[in-house]
Design brief:
The chain contains 11 helices and 10 strands. The protein is an alpha/beta fold. The longest helix is centred in the first third of the chain and has 19 residues. The protein is globular.
């Protein structure tokens, strides 16, 4: 019985996404939601047992799968460790060139220096000073722009947790906001075409994170998008509710979408993605990034391909969805 209900939900979500919401995105001046894929072979792990990765061969295969999927862009994570190694840096440049050759845009997440963290990581628990961190991050963004020419940049990812855990002391939000302004100003001046996304998970239990988002919204235009991570049905609902008061001044960009928190099987995964897609299009989210492409520790079964890059049924469903969605928008929306 559950299987039948899951199947009916799949059909319902798919039909809703392709019929109910598409016309609302075809009005003059509206941009369609962009689709992306997170390249798992070029990633920075959250824990020390999973070091920064830049597997060029696997990355090239994942990029090809992203192009076949119908994605608009690929997202790759970099940190100071990857950028300081000449081999990994050259590999990243070649992968970016490969993606562009396949018609894909480039989105880079600049994660600072994960070697500054202590584990378990917590805000204010790192080894970096405020001043050295700011200088390092400014140089990192400039290097990323120079080497990889990204179309979009995810900056200060999970600012109040991931970035704050690289610094040895806690700092108030008004100082974080000032650092963001300092780092963003030269990018806006010298590279106005790059879209800037500041990623921060919204959580009522984290008033510092909520306050930072409020400050970003009050400084309209400082960044182009607020980046959100969606990892379950609950996440999907909660993040959209908490972001709603700021959406008019701070559009949304879903930097990673998966059902990591409640994975059951491929059918459940497929249903989740279709509901998330329906919500993203209805809410006019700027981008929807599937994360990751491939099953791989520590992501286990989160990917839309298995560990050997064989597409799952979810991959084929998304491919069909992306193709139909793109063809349903006006040519001048591309």
């Amino acid at each position: 019985m559950d299987t039948i209900l899951d199947y009916l939900r799949t059909i319902l979500f798919f039909l809703l996404a392709l019929t109910s919401n598409l016309p609302s995105l075809c009005e003059a001046g509206e941009e369609r939601t962009l689709f992306g894929a997170h390249i798992d072979a070029v990633a920075v792990r959250a824990a020390p047992q999973y070091p920064a990765a830049c597997d060029e061969k696997a990355g090239a295969e994942e990029i090809s799968l992203a192009a076949r999927l119908g994605a608009d862009f690929v997202r790759m994570d970099v940190n100071e460790e990857m950028l300081s190694g000449p081999e990994s840096r050259q590999s990243l440049m070649r992968l970016c060139n490969r993606a562009r050759g396949l018609g894909l845009r480039i989105c880079i997440t600049a994660r600072g220096d994960d070697r500054l963290k202590r584990y378990p990581a917590f805000p204010g628990g790192g080894t970096g000073t405020w001043e050295t961190f700011e200088r390092m991050y400014h140089k990192q963004l400039q290097a990323v722009i120079l080497d990889f020419s990204p179309d979009s940049l995810v900056i200060f990812p999970d600012c109040m947790t991931q970035m704050a855990s690289q610094i040895s002391l806690r700092f108030p939000n008004h100082e974080w906001l000032q650092m963001i302004k300092t780092v963003v100003k030269p990018i806006r001046k010298e590279h106005p075409g790059i879209k800037l996304i500041l990623s921060q998970k919204l959580d009522l239990a984290r008033p510092d994170a909520m306050d930072l988002v409020k400050r970003l919204a009050e400084n309209r235009g400082l960044v182009d998008y607020l980046g959100l991570s969606i990892a379950s049905y609950d996440d999907l609902n909660q993040q959209m509710i908490l972001a709603a008061p700021y959406a008019a001044r701070l559009p949304l960009w879903w930097v990673e979408v998966n059902n990591a928190n409640h994975y059951r099987d491929d059918l459940y995964q497929r249903n989740f993605f279709l509901q998330a897609l329906n919500s993203a299009i209805e809410k006019r989210v700027g981008a929807f990034c599937v994360s990751p492409v491939r099953d791989d520790p520590p992501s286990v079964t989160w990917g839309i391909t298995d560990v050997n890059l064989n597409p799952k049924t979810t991959y084929e469903q998304l491919r069909y969805f992306f193709t139909n969605y793109r063809h349903s928008t006006r040519p001048d929306q591309e």
